[in-house]
Specification:
138 residues; 6 helices
C-alpha cells in the first residue's frame, strides 16, 4: 500500500480521540499549497459542497497528477488535505485503483463528519477520480 495512505492511517490510530484527529485534519488544511486568486473560479469549483471548494490538477512530467485545493471552511480545507495525501502525486491508473471507501472505513471518518460534509467529501473524490479518468482516456 501507498506510504502516504499508511502514514495517514498510522497517524489516525496514534491519536487518542476524535478531538485530536480533528486538530490533525485542520492542521493538514493549514499546510495546503496556496491557490492564486484567479485559480478560484467556476472551472475549478467543486459542485456538491456546502462550502466553497476548489481543486486543481497539475500534470507532472512523470504522468503523475499533483492536486492542489482550497476551501473557505477550516475543516473542509483539512479534508482536502486528507484527500491530497491519498490521491496527489499518483498516476491516473494508481488513482483509479484506490479503494477510497475502504480507506474511509479504516479511518472511521464517515461516522465523525456531518452528512453535508460527507456529501462534499464524496463530491471532491468524484472530481479527482473524474480528472484521473479523463487522463486515462486521453
Amino acid at each position: 500500500m501507498d506510504t502516504q495512505i499508511e502514514q495517514l492511517k498510522t497517524t489516525f490510530e496514534m491519536l487518542p480521540d476524535w478531538e485530536e484527529r480533528y486538530r490533525f485534519i485542520i492542521d493538514l488544511g493549514r499546510k495546503l499549497e496556496p491557490l492564486e486568486d484567479d485559480e478560484r473560479n467556476e472551472a475549478t469549483r467543486v459542485r456538491g459542497c456546502m462550502s466553497q471548494v476548489w481543486l486543481i490538477a497539475d500534470e507532472e512530467d512523470d504522468d503523475k497528477l499533483h492536486f492542489r485545493g482550497d476551501s473557505d471552511a477550516h475543516i473542509v480545507r483539512g479534508l482536502i488535505g486528507v484527500l491530497l495525501m491519498i490521491y496527489s502525486d499518483k498516476t491516473p491508473q494508481e488513482i483509479a485503483e484506490i479503494d477510497i471507501n475502504q480507506i474511509f472505513a479504516d479511518l472511521n471518518l464517515e461516522q465523525h463528519i456531518t452528512m453535508n460534509r460527507r456529501n462534499g467529501l464524496y463530491s471532491m473524490v468524484e472530481t479527482i477520480q473524474r480528472t484521473a479518468s479523463r487522463r486515462l482516456d486521453a
